[in-house]
UniProtKB/TrEMBL annotation:
This is Gamma-tubulin complex component. One of its GO terms (cellular component) is microtubule. It comes from Morella rubra. The keyword Mitochondrion does not apply. It holds the Pfam family GCP_C_terminal. One of its GO terms (molecular function) is microtubule minus-end binding.
Length: 262
């Protein structure tokens, strides 16, 4: 851990940078230090922190679903009851928004992991077998691999202008923990229990997340429209993952949902 100091985590302050106190580093001797330079180790640390942020967002969305899935089944079982329209509407907004944010975050995780593991890493291994003649060649190829990895994680100088938008979406995933006041717990089978659970949805927080998510998604879409479409890494290939099965539709310069509009 950075500084070797314990860092207690509070659920009220947990954010995408909550685990920044964790550092990734190596201590190597010559001649490995020719390849694993201080600059290279710093790049590894940045990538490690980004992957932790994505993993934390995925965990938050999964945890929310664990709290909601029983409630979903209960709502479906009690569809014959007369539910207050506002309560059910709030529940539907929460569920659909969670689905949309989950699609984005899981797509980001799949894109990053597949590109890091199956593209840039395999290319690096291939180069090791075919292009390395000395330590300087190895250092050069290793740095090229790290540059590709930075592009994949939107941490390169070229992509840093959009990195904050990804960070904001990841924070949206974490902020879902404020959407359920008091938690859901076990859902009873009668209408009274169900309405009590539905009334715990903090719709103000849900709508705040919705506004932040949609704003950053639209800004990313504008960046995508302006970005080169022939790049191997970066926003353009990620957007191809995001739009798989036409989850989003491009209508001119606008972007609309084909699935689960809120």
């Amino acid at each position: 851990m950075k500084g070797h100091r314990p860092m207690p985590l509070s659920t009220s302050t947990l954010g995408v940078h909550a685990f920044n106190f964790l550092g990734l580093g190596y201590r190597v001797d010559w001649p490995l230090s020719i390849v694993l330079t201080a600059g290279a180790l710093q790049i590894y640390a940045e990538i490690f922190s980004f992957l932790i942020q994505v993993k934390l967002a995925v965990f938050s969305l999964t945890d929310l679903w664990c709290s909601l899935k029983d409630l979903v089944q209960c709502v479906n079982r009690n569809h014959t009851f007369e539910h207050p329209e506002s309560e059910v509407s709030h529940f539907n907004i929460l569920m659909k928004l969670r689905h949309q944010v989950n699609h984005f975050v899981c797509t980001l995780q799949q894109y990053v992991v597949s590109q890091l593991s199956h593209v840039s890493w395999c290319r690096f291994l291939h180069s090791l077998h075919n292009k390395v003649k000395d330590m300087l060649d190895l250092e050069s190829l290793h740095m090229a691999y790290l540059m590709d990895s930075l592009h994949i994680c939107f941490l390169s100088d070229e992509t840093r202008h959009i990195a904050s938008k990804f960070e904001n979406v990841l924070q949206c995933a974490l902020d879902f923990r404020f959407c359920l006041t008091g938690g859901i717990g076990d859902v009873g089978i009668n209408q009274g229990d169900l309405m009590a659970k539905l009334s715990r949805i903090n719709i103000s927080q849900v709508l705040a997340i919705k506004r932040t998510f949609e704003r950053n998604l639209k800004e990313l879409h504008v960046c995508y429209l302006k970005s080169p479409k022939n790049r191997e890494f970066g926003l353009s290939p990620f957007w191809a993952y995001l739009k798989y099965n036409e989850f989003y539709s491009d209508d001119g310069n606008e972007m609309t949902y084909y699935a689960f509009p809120v």
